[in-house]
Hints:
Elements: H1 27-36, E1 49-53, H2 65-73, E2 78-85, E3 91-93, H3 105-108, H4 122-125, H5 146-156, E4 159-164, H6 171-181, E5 185-186, E6 189-190, E7 194-198, H7 201-210, E8 215-220, H8 226-233, E9 238-242, E10 261-264, H9 269-275, E11 282-285, H10 288-298
Helix pairs in contact: 2-5, 6-7
Amino acid sequence: MLACAATVLLAASCGGGGGGSVPVSVASPVRAAAAAGGCLSAAVGQVPVLVGHRGYPLSAPENTLASFRAAIAEGAKWVETDVQVTRDGYLVLMHDQALSRTTNAPVLYPDRSPWLVSSFDLAEIRRLDAGLWMSEKYVGEPVPTLEELLALLRQANAGLFLEIKSQGESDPDRIALALTAQGWVQSGIPIQPLCVMSFGEASAKRFKSLLPAVDVQVLFGGAPSAASLKNVDSFADGIVVSFDTLSDPVYSGPERILKNVSAYTIDSKADLADALKHPLRAVITNNFPLLRVELANIYKDVTP
């Protein structure tokens, strides 16, 4: 998942957030995407992009800057994160709707169950400890903002797979605006490697209408139905699916989008081998070091 041109078949070439809904030309996004880190391809024999899921969560607390730094230290050129919207409209990195699993929100705010991100202001969330649940080594690790992650990735020259997690109608607009405000997208064109994705087809479609030059993916928990494939084929650049569904016959269908499939969350050599029976654009993993070595072994005769 990266920044690709909306109207180009991504098996051959590729296309970030912003504020406008005016379509942009095809040629410029392709050049911008290539300059920012190249295009993802699902061509047979092509090495898929390896993506650090929530950073490197086996080493550091998921969706914290410590986790993303750990992934980058292991050689990650792409990371994935989830974005939630606070009560006062800020974008923070959090997988769950609730803060209780990965922060000490129940301790600091005992009377505010179920501790939903959307019911807290940014200042309140910034008081939380997002590291202690994993290890004393990470005591005091804060919940990051999207802005902070973008700054880190820009410095590391790394790309972003950004998931629109909640399904608020205004969330795609907020994210598009934030990406533009931070310079990740300029004049509607992504200048840093970027893919935006969502399990919500409406959210993905809305984001695509705002920024046609962005690579937009639709996520599926199970194998997509033929009807869903037909729908997403009309606007999305690709799909991201659970790796254990890749043997389903639906993936042999005629839809253009089936040439642009990525898979999550693959953490073992055996699962990687099974998943790669289908050409993949990207492999999302919790165990970046293991799969980095394994991909290098599998594709040792392929020039990246």
